[in-house]
Amino acid sequence: MMKTLNTMMAACALMVIPALHAEEKKAGPNGGRVISSVEPHVEFFVMEDRKLKLTFLDEDGKAIAVAEQSATGTGGERSKPTRFKFEKVGGALVSDVALPEGMKVPLILQVKVTPDAKTVTERLTVDFSDCPGCVHPEYACTCDH
Ligand SMILES: [Zn+2]
């Protein structure tokens, strides 16, 4: 009997953890997508001119001025990809060129938090359609609809 109860409790705990994790999903300070594979995290945001902006965050998710962080990116169609270099602009990293046209653009970002750090590769689809469940575009959706 005791054993069955423990098994049930363990199963319960497993079900609860992913639910809690989903609620922690937050938009970045600019309303962009927070990339959590990079530690500390970085916000990915597409500006009005479709240039890419990377804002580095502290432990509390607040923006910090870029220091040693660097990034590169590749996006768009595989046959004619657009390559991005990032420059420091106003405390963040901003791409030299704009994202190619389209409502759904595949993108690979490579981020280094220090010159010696391991490069973190993040693959995402920049989807500009409006999310039906929250105020963000799909690429930055926080509601897991
Ligand atoms: Zn959403």
Strand and helix layout:
Layout: H1 2-23, E1 33-35, E2 42-46, E3 51-57, E4 63-64, E5 70-75, E6 82-89, E7 92-98, E8 104-112, E9 120-127
Antiparallel strand pairs: 1-2, 2-3, 3-4, 3-7, 5-6, 5-8, 6-7, 8-9
Short account of what is shown:
It is built from one helix and nine strands, in the order H-E-E-E-E-E-E-E-E-E. It has one helix at 2-23; strands spanning 33-35, 42-46, 51-57, 63-64, 70-75, 82-89, 92-98, 104-112, 120-127.
Task: Determine and state the CATH class.
Answer: Mainly Beta
Q: How widely separated are the two ends?
A: 39 Å
Task: Please state the second-level CATH architecture.
Answer: Sandwich
- Beta-strand proportion: 35-45%
By CATH, the topology is Immunoglobulin-like
Which kinds of small molecule does this entry bind, naming each only once?
zinc ion
How much helix is in the residues?
A: 10-25%
Unreliable residue runs? 16-23
Provide the structure class: alpha+beta
Mean pLDDT across all amino acids: 88
- Label the overall shape: globular
> Structurally, how many domains make up the residues?
1
Characterize the largest beta sheet: strand count, sense, and whether it forms a barrel: 9 strands, antiparallel
Count of helical segments? 1
Number of strands: 9
Query: Taking Cα atoms only, what radius of gyration do you get, to the nearest Å?
Result: 18 Å
